[in-house]
Design a protein that fits this description.
Layout lengths: L2 E7 L7 H15 L5 E5 L8 E5 L2 E5 L11 E5 L4 E2 L1 H13 L9 E4 L3 E2 L2 H8 L14 H9 L6 H4 L2 H12 L11 H6 L2 H7 L3 E2 L1 H7 L2 E5 L30 E7 L2 E3 L13 H11 L11 E3 L1 E2 H10 L4 E5 L5 H5 L4 E9 L2 E3 L16 E7 L15 H14 L3 E5 L7 E3 L5
Helix pairs in contact: 3-4
The chain binds guanosine-5'-diphosphate.
Length: 423
């Protein structure tokens, strides 16, 4: 029996997938009965940031899969990823220095993954500081563009200095390298250290995948940023909602409110008023894990939520950060859920073809239902929701048409209400 569980972010990223992954992985490890499980990232690159907390330790992961911090996992950077060698080496060194040995028995890098190089980063960072620039400055769009343009370099090719030079000369920069680099040879040699360090991790993805009975597919970002399903053009350059390798179960992760790093090209219909946001950002820690930029904060959007659930074919749901909403009681505020949109005087409860036009949702006005806030999310047993929190969750479930199997009520791994077994 083989089981592949996909963890999909259903909003704008930062849903708290890291914690859900480190909660689900031990369940699979237990089922695997002494065998290692596979923990793999299937898209994105250093533009992602997962935070995972195990016991007293907090790990910030960017390119590595979150599951790698657990014993009895083998991590794989998959073929759909964009790998930035310098950042990856540093990340491996940082995680290793906290006591997790990352060698070739613990980690593989797909031969097919594309490489983000200095010229991609440079190109991206020139516009990174614009206030509403949606990029994280990690050269992802530039790497994706080269991949689709057939001018990119795969990991296995990057490991061969001479082949890398040949590709740069003949395909990527036939007219000559950008001005700041001296020669093709010198450019390729500037990666000598990373080439050496990363070479042992070269992996044949499908063979690795087939070796494991249990796999955990980790998405980065979220469905509303999906290249195809998201709000084009405010999207990322890969498909967070569509894992590589056929999943047996899609577990969708929703934060119980909304946030988004950059909203430049993407309408944020349920954004809270600026004053309330300014009182929540700091205590909620709503700063990009990768960009450090303050995120925009909004109310839960059930129109988007229902759309995400249907288009990613979710089998089960995890809700996170319900406890964060306690702060609204302290501030004397009600809690809202967006149940529908009003556009040009007409009410919409469900996603429409017109919403896929870039000029429609910017006109949408949210129709809210209001809820009494609560001072404490869970009773002393750590598992029972208090009455107002329960009412809020019930309404979300009614709107989405599906129950939350897991509900996060605190940052720690054990602060999770399990309402039904997902596997
Ligand atoms: P990801 O990219 O989807 O993994 O999300 P991030 O790692 O950027 O954000 C998750 C943050 O929320 C981390 O600091 C987690 O420790 C924290 N977190 C996750 N679940 C919960 C929860 O249920 N309650 C609280 N208070 N924090 C949580």
């Amino acid at each position: 029996m083989k089981k592949n569980i996909a963890i999909i972010g259903c909003q704008n990223g930062d849903e708290g997938k890291g914690k859900v992954i480190t909660f689900v992985a031990p369940i699979l490890i237990n089922l695997a009965d002494g065998q290692e499980i596979l923990s793999y990232r299937f898209q994105g690159g250093g533009n992602a940031g997962h935070t995972a907390i195990i016991g007293e330790k907090r790990y910030a992961l960017h390119q590595l899969p979150s599951g790698i911090i657990l014993a009895q996992t083998y991590g794989l950077l998959g073929k759909g990823m964009f790998i930035e060698p310098k950042g990856l080496v540093k990340e491996i060194e940082t995680i290793s220095s906290s006591g997790i040995v990352i060698d070739k028995n613990k980690l593989g890098i797909s031969s097919k993954a594309h490489i983000t190089l200095d010229y991609h980063l440079n190109d991206d960072q020139s516009s990174f500081n614009l206030a509403e620039h949606t990029s994280t400055g990690n050269g992802i769009k530039q790497t994706a563009r080269d991949k689709v343009n057939r001018t990119g370099i795969r990991f296995v090719e990057f490991l061969d200095r001479d082949l890398m030079i040949k590709i740069l000369k003949e395909k990527t920069f036939p007219q000559g390298l950008p001005e700041r680099y001296n020669s093709y040879e010198q450019f390729a040699d500037s990666y000598a250290e990373e080439r050496n360090f990363l070479a042992p991790f070269l992996a044949l993805e499908h063979e690795i995948f087939n070796k494991f009975d249990y796999a955990l597919a980790e998405g980065a970002q979220g469905l509303m940023l999906d290249l195809d399903d998201g709000q084009y053009p405010g999207i990322t350059s890969s498909n967070p909602a569509h894992p590589t390798h056929r999943p047996d179960l899609y577990l969708g992760v929703f934060k119980m409110y909304l946030s988004s790093v950059g909203i430049g090209d993407r309408p944020f219909v349920t954004e809270m008023d600026a004053d309330l946001q300014s009182r929540l950002i700091q205590p909620w820690g709503e700063f990009g894990t990768t960009t450090k930029k303050p995120r925009h904060i909004g109310w839960f959007n059930a129109v988007e939520g229902k759309y995400a659930l249907e288009s990613a074919h979710l089998d089960a749901l995890a809700g996170t950060k319900l406890d964060d909403l306690e702060l609204l009681a302290e501030l004397g505020e009600k809690i809202k859920i967006c149940v529908a949109y009003e556009i040009d005087g007409k009410r919409y409860d469900r996603w429409e073809t017109n919403f896929d036009r870039r000029d429609v949702l910017s006109k949408a006005k949210p129709i809210y239902e209001e809820f009494d806030s609560w001072e404490r999310t869970v009773e002393k047993d750590g598992q029972t929701l208090t009455p107002n929190a329960q009412k809020y969750v019930n309404s979300l479930e009614e709107l989405l048409g599906k129950r939350f199997s897991l509900i996060g009520v605190g940052p720690e791994q054990k602060q999770m209400i399990v309402r039904e077994q997902i596997i």
